[in-house]
Amino acid sequence: MADFLLELRCEEIPARMQPKAKEDLARLFGDALAKAGLQAASLETFATPRRLALIAKDLPLATLAVSEETKGPKVGAPPQALEGFLRKVGLSAEQLVERDGVYFAVVEKPGRDTAEVLAEAIPAIIRAFPWPKSMRWGAGSITTESLRWVRPLSGIIALLDGAVVPCEVDGIASGRSTMGHRFHHSGPVEIADAGTYIETLRAAHVIVHFSERCRIIRDGAAKVAAEAGLTLVADEGLVFENAGLTEWPVPLLGRFDETFLDVPPEVIQLTARVNQKYFVCEDASGKLANAFVCTANIDAIDPAVVVDGNRKVLAARLSDARFFWEQDQKTSLGEHAKKLERITFHEKLGTVADKVERVAKLAEWLASEGIVPNCDPALARQAAELCKADLVTEMVGEFPELQGLMGGYYAAKEGLPQEVSDAIRDHYKPVGQGDDVPHAPVTVAVSLADKLDTLTQFYKIGQVPTGSKDPFALRRAALAIIQLLSGNGLRLPLRQTIGVELIAPLFAKVRVFGENERVVAQSMIAKFRDFMVDPASAELQIRDAEFTELLKEMVPEARRRKAVVEELLDFFADRLKVQQREAGVRHDLIDAVFALGGEDDLVRLLARVHALQAFVSTEDGTNLLAGYKRAANILKKEDWRGIEGEIALTGEEDPLAMVDDPELAPVIAAKMADRHAAASTRSYTPEPAEQALISALETAGPAVRSAIEDEDFDHAMRVLASLREPIDTFFENVTVNDADANKRAARLALLAAFRDAVHRVADFSRIEG
């Protein structure tokens, strides 16, 4: 067994590419070994700005001899088939082996030295390396056949058990020499073998372990800050980036002019982080201090010189930031907002100014309808009208990450109400699953309106997420809406609110002159009432002929848009499952509640789901579910249409059902239950177990209905639990498919009534288990 070292030395590898490069090197090397029948006990990769390296431990010194067998044509096959096979395997007919009437080519391959395998693999790995960006250099770059690498490749170390594995790539021959730190070590560094590689380079001021460099930066930065009586603002991403920029990291603390602290702290931190890769510090009160921590790549004789150079560069950057800050304040947010007309939001959805107007109307509506309690509609509109104004400011142009935040600062400086400035600042929140959820009413209204508009508008033009593609971040918007609603306990009927955007505009054309036409129009709108804010207050004025023509135009478009609404609601259901999965909520229970139809109030829906999950995990819930499924299976097997079937046969369609309005589902269910009860009047004396179930349903039905109306879902579950014993006893003692047709029909109706009572809580057919 032997250890192998491979080092590929080049000019500075970008820090962002180093982690993936280590993974790619391990993968390509492992694949090359596997192809040759070799395997290392372990593989460890390293990356610094100037080198990419790998150590493979306990490699066999040679591959094993193998026998490769290739199946050929059958004996007696046409000569052309046999000749083609012989050309393929490079053998003569006499060398073939016949077995069971089939020719086989058997080639014995002797073992190979591992060094020979590696000598072939190294150039192939280098040429196939998948850098995100690569380059050609030197005289050879005039041809596309020359080597491509992330930066000019300058050296290769390939040592197996201390011996050089000879290979060459683009004129660069392998050896055992490398280079130490660019400034702390001059001349080549000779590597004896894989075992001494790490410490030999450490002696040359190169730390090859990425994790060790991270630890030095993380701990060293915190230490120099603490020595100055400050606290380092933790930034793990900056730790990783500095580790990728240095081979011998040395954290140093510096100071900048206190006058720059007049600029918002987020601007200072972003300027230091993005432009200079510096950490910032806070004082004892938690405020940003006029201090930074830079990571030098040298152990300087006079650190003050290094710090002073970095301070000057940072001062120039902060001067730019202060200039942007002051210039932006010379124009009011209202004036900035007018420039949004020049920015296209989407070619089919107009400008950003158009979006702002839609968001303002929706935010005002959310406030005026009391959906967002204690929210002043005027403030909601004002905040929404200004929420995107900072997109055209100099500061956000330089740092897009500060959108919203800078608008909040500018609004406060302008003297606008705090509710408005806070809403502008936070209206993008929550950005992700772990982000803070706003609770200030005006902020909630604007944030909710912004995300609802994004979803509805992109769905309206058919720009929906597909697979892993979601260019407009609609999944994130849906999750944010769910977080806003559940985090603030908002009672927002999604179907109605989405419909305001998608359906209600169609009815703006309706004008009815005369009472008869008004009645007809109101009837028509009632069939779409789940999309209207307040159908009773709609101004309906149109002449008879105009009304007829308008209906022809509106109904198809209304149906199309209604389909979009239903698609959006399905999308919300999927996002809710994703969001609740982390909270331990079962997806099938969400399906069971959504399947009821009409349940689009997320707060109420989640309360129902949580109560259902608690119930089905109990013994009563498990047994009731089993009883329900048994009843449902019997009804399905008997093709029982029950009262619904009787209505269809007699032509007595329920006008409420014809509206196809999911909000009416509970009403229809209640009517059906009443009809089941009426139909269950029997011409025979029920058996005791049968009568017990009838009595239990007569008590449970109204109780469940009342509990659901009161949103006391825990009580509804307890009422359902009372049906567990009667349904179990019924199945144990009563024959459903009795020879007497009247008994059979009555008992099937009883099971249907039981099923419908359960369905008032959830569609148990969707529950797994």
Structural key phrases:
alpha+beta; seven-stranded mixed β-sheet; four-stranded antiparallel β-sheet; 769 residues
What can you tell me about this protein's structure?
With 769 residues, this protein is of the alpha+beta class. It folds into 6 domains: 2-62 and 114-203; 68-109, no CATH class; 210-328, no CATH class; 333-464, Hypothetical protein af1432; 501-584, no CATH class; 602-766, no CATH class. The chain is 52% helix and 12% strand. The strands form 5 sheets. Strands 1, 2, 3, 7, 8, 9 and 10 form a 7-stranded mixed beta sheet that branches. Strands 13-15-16-14 form a 4-stranded antiparallel beta sheet, with helices on both faces. 36% of the residues are buried. Residues 507-518, 527-544 and 643-668 have low confidence and may be disordered.
- Total strand count, please? 18
Oligomer state equals single chain
Number of domains: 6
Class from secondary-structure proportions: alpha+beta
Shape: flat
Q: What is the tally of helical segments?
A: 29
Average pLDDT figure: 85
> Which consecutive residue ranges, at least 5 long each, have pLDDT under 50?
507-518, 527-544, 643-668
* Alpha carbon gap, first and last residue: 54 Å
Q: What does the largest sheet look like?
A: 7 strands, mixed
| C-alpha-based Rg, rounded | 37 Å
